[in-house]
Design a protein that fits this description.
By secondary structure, this protein is an all-beta fold. It contains no helices and 7 strands. The strands form 2 sheets. The chain has a 4-stranded antiparallel beta sheet with strand order 1-2-3-4, with no helix packed on it. It has a 3-stranded antiparallel beta sheet with strand order 5-6-7, with no helix packed on it. A hairpin with a 5-residue loop joins strand 1 and strand 2.
């Protein structure tokens, strides 16, 4: 399963292929990969940008991760 999520100002997109448990953040304005986030140990289920610099994710491992992006 694939998950995508766009930041509030549409400058960043979060992407996950779910099965690898990683989240990739792309800078849409520069078309570059900014971050690879690792913290879940199971398939991702949801992603939500709280604001332009805070991503919240959940997974089948029962974790809720709050990622602060600079």
């Amino acid at each position: 399963a694939y998950n995508t999520c766009l930041s509030k100002d549409a400058s960043r997109v979060a992407y996950s292929a779910s099965i690898d448990h990683k989240i990739v953040i792309f800078d849409v304005t520069k078309n570059t990969k900014k971050y690879t986030l690792k913290g879940h140990t199971a398939m991702l289920t949801r992603m939500h940008f709280k604001d332009n610099n805070t991503l919240i994710t959940t997974a089948d491992d029962g974790k809720i991760c709050i990622w602060k992006l600079n």
